[in-house]
Batch of 2 targets.
Target 1
Amino acid sequence: MLALYIRDVRLGIRSGGGALVGVLFFLAVVAVIPFGVGPDLNLLARIGPAILWIGALLASLLGLDRLFQADRDDGSLDILIMAGERRMLALAVFVKCLAHWTASVLPLVVAAPMLGLFMNMEPIGIGAATLTLLFGTPAIAFIGAAGAAVAVSLPRGGLLVSVLVLPLVIPVLIFGVSASYGAVTEPDPFLPPFLLMLAMTLFFAVLGPVAAAAALRWSAD
Amino acid sequence: MRLVANELDGERGGETIFSGVSFVLTAGEGLLVTGANGSGKSTLLRIVAGLLPAAGGAVTLEGGEPDWPDVMAASHYLGHQNALKPALSVTENLAAWRDYLGEPHVPIPEALEMVGLDEIGHLPLGYLSTGQKRRIAIARLLVSYRPVWLLDEPTAGLDRASETQFAALMAAHLEDGGMILAATHLPLGLDWTHELRMGA
C-alpha cells in the first residue's frame, strides 16, 4: 500500500500531475477577490475565511476527475481491482485519496496563510482557517473519490464530478468556515464546529472509499 | 491446482458473443485462445479475470487454498494496455507493482535482463518504444508471482526476437507449474496443450 502511495504522490508532483495548477488556481481566485470587492479592509477581513475555504474547495475539485481516470486509461485500474480481491479495494482507494490529498491539496493548505494576508485577516484567524483547511480538506478528497469513481468511464467527467461532489461537501464547508469565524469573533465558539467537521472527515474517510470501490468494481468493461 | 470454466456465456452490451465455453486447465498447461476479431477472445479473458461479470456459468480455481483463494487473486492480467506510467522510470514502475501486488518473485534487474532490457532501468518509461514498453509490461508478470497468466495479445508490438524470448518465458512458467491462458493470432512457438477456437 505504501508503494501505491509513493507512486501516486510521485505522479502527482512530476510532469503532467497538475499539483501546482491547483495552487495557481487558488492564488488566482483569492487574489481577484480584493479587486472585485474593493479596498474595504474590514469587509475583506470578515469574508476572508469564507473566501479561503471556497477557493481551496474549488481548487481541490480541479484534479479530482483524473483520480481514477488516468489509471483506467493505461490499464492500471484493472490490476488495482484484481489485486483488490486479496486486500480490500477500498483500502487502495483510501490510499489513493491520501496520495491525491498530499500531492494536490496539501500545497493549498500551505499556501493558505499567505493568501490570508491578502485578505487582511488577523494572525489568529489565519491560523484557525489553516487548521480547519488541514483537517477539513481530506473529507473533500474522500467524497470526491466516490464522485470520480462513478464518472470514471465518462470521457468528459470533470464537471460532472464537481456537480456530484459539491452538495456533499457543503456541510464540511459550513462547519469549516464557522469554526474559522469562531476563532476570531466573540461569542461564537471554535471547538464545536471544528469537532463536527473532524467527525465529518472521519465519517467520509470510511464511507467515501467504500462507495468508490463499489462503483469501480461495477464500472469495468 | 485446477482452473475450471464451466459453460461460460459472454455478453457485450446485451448481445451474446459466445455461450457454453468450458475448459479445464491443470498446473503446467497452457490454453491458446484463437478466433477472428470480435469473436470474444478479450471478453473471455476479462470474464476469467473477474473484471467482467459472466452472463452465465462460472470460473473457479480448485485446490488453490489458502494462498490463492480465487481466480482473480491468483492471476496476472496483461491486457491491451501496459498499466505503466510514462512519468515514472522503468524500475520505479516495476517496483511499485511488485510492492503493491506482493509475492515478489524475480528481482527487478534480473526480470529486465530476461526481457532483454537490462540497461534502461533508469529511463522514464515515456522515452521507450512501443515494443520496449510491452516488454516492460511482460517483466511485470515476472517480478511478482501469480500461478495463472491471462494474456491478451501479449506479443502486440514485439519483434521476432522478443517473441521467441517471451515464448521461452512462458515455457518456463508452465514448467514451473503455472497456467497460461493466451488470446493471440500467433502460436508463439509454444507447445500448447489445449486450443480453444472462438466463433467456431
Target 2
Amino acid sequence: MDTFTHIMNGFVVATEPMNLWYTFLGVLMGTIIGVLPGIGPSAGIALLIPITYGMNPTSALIMMAGIYYGAKYGGSTTAILIRTPGEAASVMTSIDGYEMAKNGRAGAALAVSAIGSFIAGTIGVIGLTLFAVPLTSMALKFGPAEYFMLMLFAMTAVSTLTGDSPAKGVIATILGLMIATIGIDLQSGQARFTMGVPEFLDGVGFVVVVVGLFAMAEVLRGLEDIYRGSSAKAMRITGKLWLTREEWKRSIGPIWRGGIIGFVIGVLPGAGGTIAAIMSYTTEKRLSKHPEEFGKGAIEGVAGPESANNSDTAGALVPLLTLGIPGGGATAVLLGAFIMYGIQPGPLLFQTKPDLVWGLVNSMYIGNVMLVILNLPLIGLFVRLLYIPQGILYPLIVAISAIGAYAINGSTMDLWLILAFGVVGYVFDKTGIPVAPLVLSLVLGGMMEQSFRQAMTISSGDLKIFYGSTITVVLLVMSVISVLLPFVIPMLRKLGSKGDES
Amino acid sequence: MNVYNIKAAVMPVFPSCRTFPLFLCALLLPLYAAAQPAYPVKPIRIVLGSTPGASPDILARMITTKMSENWQQTVVIDNKVGAGGLIAANLVAKATPDGYTLLATSPAIAIRAALASNPDDVLKDFSAVTEIGFSNTALLAGPASGAKSIREIIAFANANHGKVFFASGGALTADHINGERFRIAAGIKVQHVAFKGQSEALIEVVAGRMLYTSASLTSSMPFIKNGTLRVLAVAQRTPLLPDVPSMEESLKGWGRNGSQALLAPKGTPLAIRQKISREVARITSLPEIKEKLDAVSFGITANSPEQHEKNLRADVAAFSRVLKESGLKTN
Amino acid sequence: MVDRIIFVCTVLLAAVYLWATSKIPTLALGDPLGPKAFPQMLGVGLLIGAGMLLAEIIRAGRNKSGNTEKAAPLRFEKHDAVVLAVIIGTAVYVFAFERLGYLISTAIYLLVMTHFFNRGRWLMNVLTSVLFAVISYLAFAKLLGVNLARGILPF
C-alpha cells in the first residue's frame, strides 16, 4: 500500500468521533497545563501515562500528543500576563509579550500568539507529513554506530547551548548519564549502582525524575516566592483580542519564518522549542527596521518565537517517529508512552502501524484548529486559572504528582525520588546548573552507552566504525561544530557589530 | 508439549504415598480431601510482575475472570512491577502459605534461579502449582544471509566464522537464552548483541546487521507477513505457519523456553494447589479461552503441581548449562 | 562561593562513582567493553567537568580581582527555612502515604500546606483540601482502577 493511502486512512482514524474527543481532551489539558506555570507538558504527559492503561493506544497517544503541542499554546498566555513562561519554550514571549500587556495591548499579544501558533503549527504538521516517510527509508541505515553519533550530537548541542556556563552544562549532562547507568546492564545482565535496592534494578524511572526536577522543584520555588511576597500577579486582559491592520502586517513575516525555523530546529534532536524561540527572536530582531523596539513590546518579538516553538513540536516528532529518538524532555516522555503500549517508534512503525501513525499525525491538523478556538475566543476561561491562589495551586501539584507516580509502580520509593529530585532541581536552579541537559542525557544515556557497546561488539573493538559511514562522519562534524559554536559565536558577534551582514 | 498429564492430575501424590501401592492412595484420597477446609472462602490475590495491559497481565486476567465466576470468589490481580518480577516474587515468598496469595511467573524466574550459585536460593520459597503455557517463539533471519532454513543459516554462519552476530531484546531474557541454545545446538560461532526490547532487535535483523534473533511470534508476525523477515523455526508448530518446523524437530537438543506459571508460597497445602491447577486446566480448555489464546499464538501447558515442579527444575538445570557455556554465569 | 561548593561536590561525587564502578563484577565472556568501561569514562568525564568549572572560577576571579566585591557569603535566611520546612512536610506526607493511605494523608497534607501558604482563607482551604482528596480518590482508585494506597481505611 502506498503512503498516500495510508495518509488518507489516517484521516479516517483521526476523525472517528472517539478520537476527535480524545484530541479535544488532549489539547484542552495541554492548554491548561501550558497556562499553569510549573507543570509543563513533560510532567503533564507523565502524569497521564498510568491513567491511560488499557485505553486504545491510538486514542491515548493522540491525547498525549495533544497535551504536548497544546501546552505551547497555553504557555504564551502566562508569559504575556505574568511574565513567567507557563512552559519553558515561551521564555522569549515573556519579554515583549509582557511589555505589550503593560502598554494595554495584551489582547493583541494573545491574539498574535494564537494565530501565529496555528499557522506555524500547521506548517510543522505539513512538514512532518512530507518528510517523515522519506526519512524512514534512511533510518534503517542507522545502526548502533550511527545512533551513537546521533546521540552524541544531541548531547553536545544541548549541553553547550543551554546556560551561560559550559562547565555546568557538562556536569549536568554527565550526572544525567550517571543516573542512566543505574540498574541492570542490557549487554551483560549485571546489576550496577543499585545500592541493594531492588527497585533500582530497573533503573531510576524517567517519569519520576522529570516530575521531581520540574513540578516538585517549581513547587519549592513557588512557595518560597509566596513567603517572600514576590510571587507575580496576573495582569488583566486589555484591548481587543484581535490585531490592527498595522500589527497584522508586521506579524505575518515573523510567523512564516518562525514556522520554518521551528520545524528545522525541531527535527534536529536536542535543540528543542526554547532554542527555536531564541533563534526566531534573534532573526526577527536582525531583520527588523526598528530593532530598538524589541524588548519594549515589539509584536514581532511575540509572533516569531511563539510560531517557532509551535512548529518545533511537529518537527520533534520526526526523529521520534522515524528513529525512535526523542529530541527533548517532552518527546522523551511520549516515547515512554509509546513503549508502554508495546509500540516501538522507529523506521518500521510506518509499515507495521500505519493507522496509528497517520491517525496521530492527522489528528494534529484537527488539534491545531481546536486550539486556536480554545485560545482565542475562549481564552478568558483559561486566564481564570491564573487567579487560583498559588498557595493552593502548589500543594495540589504535589498531590497530583504523587497520584501519577504511585500509580505506575505502586511503590513509595518513587515518591521519595520525586522529593529528592525536587530538591536537586531547586538547588540546580539556585546555583545556575541547567536541568535540560540532565534530563536529555538521562533519556539518551542508556541508549548511548548500549549503542556504543553494540557498535564495539560488531566492530570487534575497532573505533573506526564511528567514522566508517557517511552518516557517522556528518554527525561527527556536526558534533564538533556544536562544541565549538559557543566559542565561535562571540567572535562572529564582534565581527557583526563592525561590519554589516545577516 | 501440549499434553495434559491426566495421570498426575487425577491421582495426586503426596510424599508419604510414594512407597504405597497406588490403589491405596486412591482409597485414602477422599478421606484426606474431606479433612481439608473448603477453599476458597475469601478473595484470592495473584501477584504479577508486569504492568497492567502487558501480555502476561492480559493472560492472568483472562484466567482470573473465569476462576472467580466458577468459585464465586473475588480473584484480584496485583501488579507489583519491577526488577524482572523480583519485587513480586519477594512479596509472595513472604506471604502466608494458605493458597490465597499466588505468584504469576514468567521464564524469568527459572533464568534467575539458573544464574544463582545455588538455584534453591531462588526456588526454596515457592511450591509449584501449575504451568499455564508459553508464547510461541520464532527464530527469525533477515536478508543478510538469505537463509531459508536452519540448515542454510548454520552453513552461512560457518562460512562467516566469527563475523556474525545474533540480536536479543536484552541480556538474560528468554529470547537471549533461546538464541544461545540455538548457537550451542548448532555448534556455530555467533556473538550475542543485546538491544532494548524485541522490536529493536527485530529492526537490526531486518537491516541485515544481525544474523538472527528469537522473538515472540505475535510481535514478529507483521515482518513475516510483509516478507522482511524469514521464520526458520518455531517453538511449537502452528497452523498460522504450516510449513515451519518446530525447533526441536530441526535441531536436536535445542530445548524449550520455559513457561508462564503459577507458584505459591512454600508450604501451601498440596490439595489446594491441586485444586487450583485443575481449575486452570479447566479454564484453558474452554473453547472461548482457547480461541483467544490461539489468536496470540499462546501454547497451553497446564499441568499438575508435581509435573510443574519437575519441569521447572529441568528448565533451571538446562538454562544453567547454557549460561555456563555462554560465559554468562560466573559460579 | 557557590561555584566552589559545586566544584567540591562534583569531585566527591566522581570519586564515589568511580569507587562504585570498581565494585561491578565482570564476566568471562560477553561484549568486549563490559559493564565497567562506560561508567569509568563518565567518572573521568565528571572530573573534567569539575576541571572546567575550576577554570571558570579562576577566570571570573581574575576578571573581578580589582573589585572589592567578594561573592556574597552564604547565609541561611528565613526563606530558606521555609523551603526546608516544605521539604520536611512533604517527606512526612510521603512517609504517611502508604501507612495512612492516600485519602487521609493527602487531605492532611493539603490542609497544612494551604493553611500556611494561603493564610486566612479557612473555608476555601478546608473545602479544597477535603474535596480534592475525596474526588481524586474516587476518580482514580474507584473509577479508573488506578492503584492508590488504601492505608487504614477499609475502602
